[in-house]
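Hi U.,

Before I forget, here's the chain from the pilot set. I'm dumping it here mostly so it's searchable later in email.
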Amino acid sequence: MDIVEQVTEYCLDKMLIAKGDKILLAVSGGPDSVALLNIFHELQNKLHIELSVVHFEHGLRGHESVKDQEFVKRMADKLGLSFYTKSMNVLDNKRHDESVEEAARRMRLSYFLDVLKDIGYNKIATGHTSDDNVETVLFRLISGTGPAGISGILPISGKVIHPILSLTREQIMRYLAVKKLQYREDETNFDRSITRNKIRHEIIPILYSINPRYREHIQSFATIIKEENELVHTIAMNMLESVLLNKRPGNIEVSYTRFLDLSPPLKRRIILWAVRFLAESQENDEYERKYIPYKIVNYISQSKDVGNKTIYKDKFLEISKEYDVLLFKKRVVNKNDKTYLYYVEEITNPIHISEINRKIVLRVRDHVERLKKNNLYFDYNKITFPLIVRGRKTGDRIELVGLGNKKVKTIFINEKIPRAGREMVPIIESSGKICGIFLSLYGKENRCAEEFMISESTERILECELI
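Structure:
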Protein backbone atom coordinates (compact mmCIF):
# COMPACT_ATOMS: atom_id res chain seq x y z
CA MET A 1 0.00 0.00 0.00
CA ASP A 2 1.48 3.38 -0.97
CA ILE A 3 1.45 6.35 1.35
CA VAL A 4 -1.54 8.10 -0.25
CA GLU A 5 -3.66 4.95 0.00
CA GLN A 6 -2.59 4.52 3.62
CA VAL A 7 -3.69 8.06 4.49
CA THR A 8 -6.98 7.58 2.64
CA GLU A 9 -7.72 4.37 4.52
CA TYR A 10 -6.78 5.95 7.86
CA CYS A 11 -8.98 9.00 7.28
CA LEU A 12 -11.98 6.90 6.28
CA ASP A 13 -11.45 4.41 9.11
CA LYS A 14 -11.25 7.18 11.73
CA MET A 15 -14.03 9.17 10.00
CA LEU A 16 -11.81 12.24 9.72
CA ILE A 17 -13.10 13.29 6.30
CA ALA A 18 -16.52 13.36 4.69
CA LYS A 19 -17.59 14.30 1.18
CA GLY A 20 -17.92 18.07 0.87
CA ASP A 21 -15.56 18.91 3.73
CA LYS A 22 -13.75 22.23 3.52
CA ILE A 23 -10.34 21.68 5.05
CA LEU A 24 -7.77 24.25 6.09
CA LEU A 25 -4.29 22.71 5.81
CA ALA A 26 -1.89 24.01 8.47
CA VAL A 27 1.47 24.15 6.68
CA SER A 28 4.66 25.29 8.42
CA GLY A 29 6.98 24.43 5.54
CA GLY A 30 8.61 21.50 7.34
CA PRO A 31 8.70 17.97 5.86
CA ASP A 32 5.58 16.68 7.63
CA SER A 33 3.32 19.58 6.63
CA VAL A 34 4.68 19.63 3.06
CA ALA A 35 3.81 15.93 2.78
CA LEU A 36 0.36 16.64 4.22
CA LEU A 37 -0.22 19.40 1.66
CA ASN A 38 0.78 17.30 -1.34
CA ILE A 39 -0.98 14.12 -0.21
CA PHE A 40 -4.23 16.03 0.24
CA HIS A 41 -3.80 17.78 -3.09
CA GLU A 42 -3.63 14.31 -4.68
CA LEU A 43 -6.77 13.26 -2.78
CA GLN A 44 -8.79 16.43 -3.34
CA ASN A 45 -10.85 15.21 -6.29
CA LYS A 46 -11.07 11.60 -5.14
CA LEU A 47 -12.51 12.55 -1.73
CA HIS A 48 -14.54 15.52 -3.05
CA ILE A 49 -13.08 18.01 -0.60
CA GLU A 50 -12.12 21.70 -0.78
CA LEU A 51 -8.69 22.85 0.42
CA SER A 52 -6.95 26.05 1.50
CA VAL A 53 -3.59 26.64 3.16
CA VAL A 54 -2.88 28.55 6.37
CA HIS A 55 0.48 29.55 7.87
CA PHE A 56 1.35 31.32 11.13
CA GLU A 57 4.64 33.21 11.25
CA HIS A 58 5.79 33.32 14.89
CA GLY A 59 8.52 35.92 14.59
CA LEU A 60 10.88 33.69 16.56
CA ARG A 61 13.56 33.02 13.96
CA GLY A 62 13.96 36.41 12.33
CA HIS A 63 14.33 36.37 8.56
CA GLU A 64 14.20 32.55 8.47
CA SER A 65 10.59 32.67 9.69
CA VAL A 66 9.71 35.07 6.89
CA LYS A 67 11.38 32.74 4.38
CA ASP A 68 9.20 29.88 5.68
CA GLN A 69 6.13 32.06 5.13
CA GLU A 70 7.16 32.94 1.58
CA PHE A 71 8.01 29.29 0.82
CA VAL A 72 4.56 28.06 1.90
CA LYS A 73 2.86 30.81 -0.14
CA ARG A 74 4.73 29.71 -3.27
CA MET A 75 3.65 26.10 -2.73
CA ALA A 76 0.01 27.11 -2.26
CA ASP A 77 0.11 29.30 -5.37
CA LYS A 78 1.68 26.50 -7.40
CA LEU A 79 -1.11 24.11 -6.39
CA GLY A 80 -3.80 26.74 -7.00
CA LEU A 81 -4.92 26.87 -3.37
CA SER A 82 -6.01 29.93 -1.40
CA PHE A 83 -3.41 31.03 1.14
CA TYR A 84 -3.93 32.70 4.51
CA THR A 85 -1.16 33.91 6.78
CA LYS A 86 -0.43 36.11 9.78
CA SER A 87 2.78 37.41 11.33
CA MET A 88 2.89 37.86 15.09
CA ASN A 89 5.75 38.14 17.56
CA VAL A 90 5.15 35.41 20.11
CA LEU A 91 7.61 36.82 22.64
CA ASP A 92 5.77 40.15 22.69
CA ASN A 93 2.41 38.46 23.27
CA LYS A 94 3.39 35.63 25.60
CA ARG A 95 1.63 35.47 28.95
CA HIS A 96 3.77 35.40 32.06
CA ASP A 97 2.56 31.91 33.07
CA GLU A 98 3.22 30.08 29.78
CA SER A 99 6.29 28.89 27.90
CA VAL A 100 7.23 30.15 24.44
CA GLU A 101 6.04 26.84 22.96
CA GLU A 102 2.68 27.09 24.76
CA ALA A 103 2.24 30.70 23.67
CA ALA A 104 3.04 29.87 20.04
CA ARG A 105 0.61 26.94 20.11
CA ARG A 106 -2.17 29.06 21.62
CA MET A 107 -1.75 31.95 19.17
CA ARG A 108 -1.40 29.65 16.19
CA LEU A 109 -4.56 27.70 16.98
CA SER A 110 -6.49 30.89 17.75
CA TYR A 111 -5.54 32.30 14.33
CA PHE A 112 -6.39 29.05 12.53
CA LEU A 113 -9.83 28.98 14.16
CA ASP A 114 -10.42 32.61 13.18
CA VAL A 115 -9.60 31.85 9.54
CA LEU A 116 -11.77 28.73 9.64
CA LYS A 117 -14.73 30.81 10.76
CA ASP A 118 -14.06 33.71 8.36
CA ILE A 119 -13.91 31.56 5.20
CA GLY A 120 -16.66 29.11 6.16
CA TYR A 121 -14.48 26.00 6.41
CA ASN A 122 -15.20 23.19 8.87
CA LYS A 123 -11.89 21.43 9.63
CA ILE A 124 -8.21 22.14 10.25
CA ALA A 125 -5.66 19.45 9.28
CA THR A 126 -2.21 19.34 10.85
CA GLY A 127 0.85 17.26 9.94
CA HIS A 128 1.40 15.30 13.15
CA THR A 129 2.88 11.85 12.53
CA SER A 130 3.27 8.56 14.34
CA ASP A 131 6.68 9.71 15.62
CA ASP A 132 5.13 12.90 17.00
CA ASN A 133 2.59 10.76 18.83
CA VAL A 134 5.26 8.58 20.43
CA GLU A 135 7.26 11.64 21.47
CA THR A 136 4.10 13.20 22.93
CA VAL A 137 3.35 10.11 25.03
CA LEU A 138 6.92 10.01 26.36
CA PHE A 139 6.96 13.76 27.02
CA ARG A 140 3.72 13.59 28.99
CA LEU A 141 4.91 10.58 30.97
CA ILE A 142 8.05 12.45 31.96
CA SER A 143 6.23 15.71 32.67
CA GLY A 144 3.41 14.12 34.64
CA THR A 145 -0.02 13.24 33.29
CA GLY A 146 -3.06 11.01 33.64
CA PRO A 147 -4.70 8.49 31.28
CA ALA A 148 -5.92 11.18 28.88
CA GLY A 149 -2.37 12.48 28.42
CA ILE A 150 -0.89 9.02 27.93
CA SER A 151 -3.48 8.41 25.20
CA GLY A 152 -1.35 10.69 23.03
CA ILE A 153 -2.52 12.67 20.01
CA LEU A 154 -6.09 11.79 19.08
CA PRO A 155 -7.10 11.41 15.41
CA ILE A 156 -9.57 14.25 15.90
CA SER A 157 -9.76 16.96 18.54
CA GLY A 158 -12.58 19.45 18.13
CA LYS A 159 -12.21 20.99 14.68
CA VAL A 160 -8.63 19.74 14.28
CA ILE A 161 -7.89 16.49 12.46
CA HIS A 162 -4.57 14.61 12.21
CA PRO A 163 -4.78 12.74 8.88
CA ILE A 164 -1.16 11.51 8.67
CA LEU A 165 -0.94 10.22 12.23
CA SER A 166 -0.43 6.67 10.95
CA LEU A 167 2.72 7.64 8.98
CA THR A 168 6.25 7.41 10.33
CA ARG A 169 8.91 10.05 9.77
CA GLU A 170 10.78 7.58 7.53
CA GLN A 171 7.72 7.20 5.31
CA ILE A 172 7.37 10.97 5.07
CA MET A 173 10.99 11.45 4.01
CA ARG A 174 10.76 8.67 1.38
CA TYR A 175 7.59 10.24 -0.05
CA LEU A 176 9.25 13.66 -0.31
CA ALA A 177 12.32 12.14 -1.98
CA VAL A 178 10.28 10.18 -4.54
CA LYS A 179 8.15 13.22 -5.37
CA LYS A 180 11.23 15.48 -5.39
CA LEU A 181 9.48 17.87 -3.02
CA GLN A 182 11.42 20.60 -1.24
CA TYR A 183 10.81 21.59 2.38
CA ARG A 184 12.20 23.94 5.01
CA GLU A 185 14.15 22.71 8.02
CA ASP A 186 13.75 24.54 11.33
CA GLU A 187 17.16 24.59 13.01
CA THR A 188 15.51 24.82 16.46
CA ASN A 189 14.40 21.21 15.95
CA PHE A 190 18.00 20.23 16.70
CA ASP A 191 18.28 22.27 19.90
CA ARG A 192 18.63 19.57 22.55
CA SER A 193 17.97 21.98 25.39
CA ILE A 194 14.32 21.67 24.32
CA THR A 195 12.81 18.61 26.02
CA ARG A 196 10.99 17.29 22.97
CA ASN A 197 14.16 17.49 20.89
CA LYS A 198 16.11 15.68 23.59
CA ILE A 199 13.51 12.89 23.48
CA ARG A 200 13.69 12.76 19.68
CA HIS A 201 17.47 12.79 19.30
CA GLU A 202 18.62 11.02 22.47
CA ILE A 203 15.86 8.91 24.02
CA ILE A 204 14.27 7.54 20.84
CA PRO A 205 17.57 6.12 19.46
CA ILE A 206 18.09 4.26 22.76
CA LEU A 207 14.57 2.82 22.56
CA TYR A 208 15.25 1.73 18.98
CA SER A 209 18.45 -0.03 20.05
CA ILE A 210 16.46 -1.94 22.69
CA ASN A 211 13.58 -2.84 20.40
CA PRO A 212 13.17 -1.58 16.80
CA ARG A 213 9.41 -2.06 17.22
CA TYR A 214 9.23 0.42 20.12
CA ARG A 215 6.92 2.74 18.17
CA GLU A 216 4.36 0.01 17.56
CA HIS A 217 4.32 -1.04 21.22
CA ILE A 218 4.07 2.50 22.62
CA GLN A 219 1.20 3.32 20.27
CA SER A 220 -0.54 0.07 21.18
CA PHE A 221 -0.15 0.97 24.85
CA ALA A 222 -1.55 4.46 24.22
CA THR A 223 -4.54 2.99 22.38
CA ILE A 224 -5.32 0.56 25.22
CA ILE A 225 -5.10 3.37 27.79
CA LYS A 226 -7.35 5.55 25.61
CA GLU A 227 -10.02 2.85 25.30
CA GLU A 228 -9.98 2.02 29.01
CA ASN A 229 -9.98 5.71 29.91
CA GLU A 230 -13.05 6.22 27.72
CA LEU A 231 -14.80 3.33 29.49
CA VAL A 232 -14.08 4.77 32.95
CA HIS A 233 -15.18 8.19 31.71
CA THR A 234 -18.48 6.72 30.49
CA ILE A 235 -19.06 5.08 33.88
CA ALA A 236 -18.20 8.36 35.63
CA MET A 237 -20.64 10.32 33.48
CA ASN A 238 -23.36 7.77 34.28
CA MET A 239 -22.61 8.31 37.98
CA LEU A 240 -22.58 12.08 37.59
CA GLU A 241 -26.36 12.35 37.80
CA SER A 242 -26.32 10.84 41.30
CA VAL A 243 -23.98 13.52 42.68
CA LEU A 244 -24.72 16.62 40.57
CA LEU A 245 -26.84 19.23 42.34
CA ASN A 246 -26.64 22.09 39.91
CA LYS A 247 -25.01 22.91 36.58
CA ARG A 248 -24.95 26.23 34.81
CA PRO A 249 -22.33 28.30 32.97
CA GLY A 250 -19.75 29.39 35.51
CA ASN A 251 -20.98 27.18 38.35
CA ILE A 252 -21.03 23.45 39.13
CA GLU A 253 -22.33 22.08 42.45
CA VAL A 254 -21.81 18.49 43.57
CA SER A 255 -23.14 16.69 46.65
CA TYR A 256 -20.00 16.19 48.76
CA THR A 257 -21.47 13.27 50.77
CA ARG A 258 -22.42 11.32 47.65
CA PHE A 259 -19.16 12.32 45.97
CA LEU A 260 -17.19 10.75 48.83
CA ASP A 261 -18.92 7.41 48.22
CA LEU A 262 -17.41 7.15 44.73
CA SER A 263 -14.07 5.49 43.95
CA PRO A 264 -11.07 7.81 43.34
CA PRO A 265 -10.97 7.14 39.54
CA LEU A 266 -14.62 8.22 39.21
CA LYS A 267 -14.05 11.25 41.43
CA ARG A 268 -11.10 12.36 39.30
CA ARG A 269 -13.14 12.21 36.12
CA ILE A 270 -16.02 14.16 37.64
CA ILE A 271 -13.55 16.84 38.78
CA LEU A 272 -12.02 17.04 35.31
CA TRP A 273 -15.46 17.13 33.72
CA ALA A 274 -16.47 20.07 35.95
CA VAL A 275 -13.32 22.02 35.07
CA ARG A 276 -13.83 21.29 31.36
CA PHE A 277 -17.49 22.38 31.57
CA LEU A 278 -16.43 25.70 33.08
CA ALA A 279 -13.80 26.14 30.37
CA GLU A 280 -16.29 25.46 27.58
CA SER A 281 -18.74 27.96 29.05
CA GLN A 282 -16.08 30.69 29.06
CA GLU A 283 -16.34 32.95 26.02
CA ASN A 284 -12.86 34.36 26.60
CA ASP A 285 -10.41 32.02 24.83
CA GLU A 286 -7.97 32.68 27.66
CA TYR A 287 -9.80 29.97 29.60
CA GLU A 288 -10.13 27.42 26.79
CA ARG A 289 -6.90 25.55 27.42
CA LYS A 290 -6.94 25.83 31.20
CA TYR A 291 -5.83 22.74 33.08
CA ILE A 292 -6.02 22.00 36.80
CA PRO A 293 -2.84 20.52 38.37
CA TYR A 294 -3.07 16.75 38.77
CA LYS A 295 -1.99 16.95 42.43
CA ILE A 296 -5.10 19.05 43.13
CA VAL A 297 -7.33 16.56 41.31
CA ASN A 298 -5.76 13.72 43.27
CA TYR A 299 -6.04 15.60 46.58
CA ILE A 300 -9.77 16.24 46.11
CA SER A 301 -10.38 12.63 45.07
CA GLN A 302 -8.52 11.25 48.14
CA SER A 303 -9.39 13.68 50.95
CA LYS A 304 -12.41 13.97 53.23
CA ASP A 305 -12.50 17.64 54.14
CA VAL A 306 -14.39 18.78 57.23
CA GLY A 307 -15.88 22.25 57.41
CA ASN A 308 -16.13 24.98 54.79
CA LYS A 309 -12.89 25.76 52.97
CA THR A 310 -11.39 26.88 49.69
CA ILE A 311 -9.55 23.89 48.24
CA TYR A 312 -8.00 25.46 45.15
CA LYS A 313 -7.99 28.87 43.53
CA ASP A 314 -6.25 30.48 40.57
CA LYS A 315 -7.06 33.47 38.35
CA PHE A 316 -9.73 31.51 36.47
CA LEU A 317 -11.16 28.90 38.82
CA GLU A 318 -12.13 28.35 42.45
CA ILE A 319 -12.96 24.98 44.02
CA SER A 320 -14.41 25.03 47.51
CA LYS A 321 -16.42 23.00 49.98
CA GLU A 322 -19.46 24.75 51.41
CA TYR A 323 -21.55 22.67 53.81
CA ASP A 324 -22.34 19.50 51.84
CA VAL A 325 -21.54 21.04 48.46
CA LEU A 326 -18.35 20.69 46.41
CA LEU A 327 -18.43 23.92 44.42
CA PHE A 328 -16.58 24.59 41.14
CA LYS A 329 -16.83 28.26 40.26
CA LYS A 330 -15.48 30.31 37.39
CA ARG A 331 -13.86 33.41 38.87
CA VAL A 332 -14.42 35.58 35.79
CA VAL A 333 -18.00 36.61 36.54
CA ASN A 334 -20.25 39.20 34.96
CA LYS A 335 -21.36 41.34 37.91
CA ASN A 336 -24.65 42.08 36.17
CA ASP A 337 -25.51 38.37 36.08
CA LYS A 338 -25.92 37.77 39.81
CA THR A 339 -29.73 37.62 39.83
CA TYR A 340 -32.72 37.50 37.50
CA LEU A 341 -36.38 38.51 37.27
CA TYR A 342 -39.19 37.17 35.07
CA TYR A 343 -42.82 38.34 34.83
CA VAL A 344 -45.55 35.72 34.32
CA GLU A 345 -48.63 37.36 32.84
CA GLU A 346 -50.54 34.14 32.20
CA ILE A 347 -50.19 30.37 32.29
CA THR A 348 -48.96 29.46 28.83
CA ASN A 349 -45.45 28.31 27.94
CA PRO A 350 -42.87 27.20 30.52
CA ILE A 351 -40.72 29.96 32.04
CA HIS A 352 -37.15 29.34 30.94
CA ILE A 353 -34.69 30.68 33.53
CA SER A 354 -31.50 30.75 31.49
CA GLU A 355 -29.35 31.84 34.45
CA ILE A 356 -29.84 28.47 36.18
CA ASN A 357 -30.66 26.40 33.10
CA ARG A 358 -34.08 25.43 34.49
CA LYS A 359 -37.73 25.76 33.47
CA ILE A 360 -40.78 26.35 35.64
CA VAL A 361 -43.97 24.76 34.31
CA LEU A 362 -47.28 26.14 35.62
CA ARG A 363 -50.49 24.08 35.61
CA VAL A 364 -53.95 24.75 37.02
CA ARG A 365 -55.60 21.66 38.51
CA ASP A 366 -58.95 20.90 40.18
CA HIS A 367 -57.23 18.47 42.52
CA VAL A 368 -53.89 16.74 43.05
CA GLU A 369 -53.79 13.12 44.18
CA ARG A 370 -50.18 13.18 45.34
CA LEU A 371 -48.03 16.18 46.19
CA LYS A 372 -44.58 15.96 44.61
CA LYS A 373 -41.82 17.12 46.93
CA ASN A 374 -39.99 19.06 44.19
CA ASN A 375 -43.07 21.09 43.24
CA LEU A 376 -44.82 24.07 44.79
CA TYR A 377 -48.63 24.13 45.20
CA PHE A 378 -50.67 27.31 45.73
CA ASP A 379 -54.36 28.08 46.17
CA TYR A 380 -55.05 29.52 42.72
CA ASN A 381 -57.72 31.93 43.98
CA LYS A 382 -55.19 33.54 46.33
CA ILE A 383 -52.69 34.22 43.54
CA THR A 384 -52.63 37.54 41.69
CA PHE A 385 -51.06 37.85 38.24
CA PRO A 386 -48.57 38.83 37.07
CA LEU A 387 -46.43 36.49 39.13
CA ILE A 388 -42.76 37.34 39.51
CA VAL A 389 -40.06 34.68 39.37
CA ARG A 390 -36.77 36.04 40.67
CA GLY A 391 -33.64 35.48 42.68
CA ARG A 392 -33.19 36.47 46.32
CA LYS A 393 -33.00 40.11 47.38
CA THR A 394 -31.62 41.58 50.58
CA GLY A 395 -34.33 41.68 53.27
CA ASP A 396 -36.55 38.96 51.75
CA ARG A 397 -38.94 37.34 54.26
CA ILE A 398 -41.60 34.61 54.09
CA GLU A 399 -44.44 33.68 56.47
CA LEU A 400 -44.24 29.95 57.27
CA VAL A 401 -46.66 27.69 59.14
CA GLY A 402 -45.59 27.27 62.76
CA LEU A 403 -42.45 29.37 62.29
CA GLY A 404 -43.82 32.81 61.65
CA ASN A 405 -42.09 35.48 59.61
CA LYS A 406 -38.63 34.19 58.64
CA LYS A 407 -35.73 35.77 56.79
CA VAL A 408 -35.04 33.94 53.54
CA LYS A 409 -31.33 34.34 54.28
CA THR A 410 -31.79 32.44 57.56
CA ILE A 411 -33.59 29.63 55.75
CA PHE A 412 -30.72 29.36 53.27
CA ILE A 413 -28.16 29.23 56.09
CA ASN A 414 -30.13 26.61 58.02
CA GLU A 415 -30.52 24.51 54.89
CA LYS A 416 -26.79 24.92 54.11
CA ILE A 417 -27.34 26.45 50.68
CA PRO A 418 -23.92 27.52 49.30
CA ARG A 419 -23.36 31.27 49.53
CA ALA A 420 -22.44 31.52 45.85
CA GLY A 421 -25.75 29.94 44.81
CA ARG A 422 -28.25 31.70 47.07
CA GLU A 423 -29.12 34.46 44.59
CA MET A 424 -29.95 31.77 42.02
CA VAL A 425 -32.66 29.96 44.03
CA PRO A 426 -36.03 30.68 42.30
CA ILE A 427 -38.50 32.67 44.40
CA ILE A 428 -42.15 33.14 43.34
CA GLU A 429 -43.77 36.43 44.30
CA SER A 430 -47.39 37.62 44.06
CA SER A 431 -48.57 41.16 44.87
CA GLY A 432 -45.27 41.92 46.57
CA LYS A 433 -45.37 38.85 48.82
CA ILE A 434 -43.21 35.73 48.55
CA CYS A 435 -45.44 32.73 47.79
CA GLY A 436 -42.79 30.05 47.66
CA ILE A 437 -39.12 29.19 47.40
CA PHE A 438 -37.72 26.44 45.14
CA LEU A 439 -35.10 24.98 47.51
CA SER A 440 -35.41 21.79 45.47
CA LEU A 441 -32.80 23.41 43.21
CA TYR A 442 -30.38 22.19 45.88
CA GLY A 443 -32.24 19.01 46.78
CA LYS A 444 -33.93 20.58 49.82
CA GLU A 445 -37.59 20.84 50.82
CA ASN A 446 -39.45 23.67 49.10
CA ARG A 447 -41.09 26.39 51.19
CA CYS A 448 -44.65 27.62 50.64
CA ALA A 449 -45.97 30.75 52.41
CA GLU A 450 -48.86 30.03 54.78
CA GLU A 451 -51.12 32.59 53.10
CA PHE A 452 -50.95 30.82 49.71
CA MET A 453 -51.08 27.17 50.82
CA ILE A 454 -53.81 24.83 49.61
CA SER A 455 -56.47 23.63 52.06
CA GLU A 456 -59.71 21.63 52.10
CA SER A 457 -61.59 24.70 50.87
CA THR A 458 -59.25 25.18 47.85
CA GLU A 459 -61.20 25.03 44.59
CA ARG A 460 -58.33 25.20 42.12
CA ILE A 461 -54.62 24.52 42.56
CA LEU A 462 -51.69 26.23 40.85
CA GLU A 463 -48.94 23.62 40.48
CA CYS A 464 -45.41 24.90 39.83
CA GLU A 465 -42.82 22.37 38.70
CA LEU A 466 -39.10 23.13 38.47
CA ILE A 467 -37.53 21.14 35.63
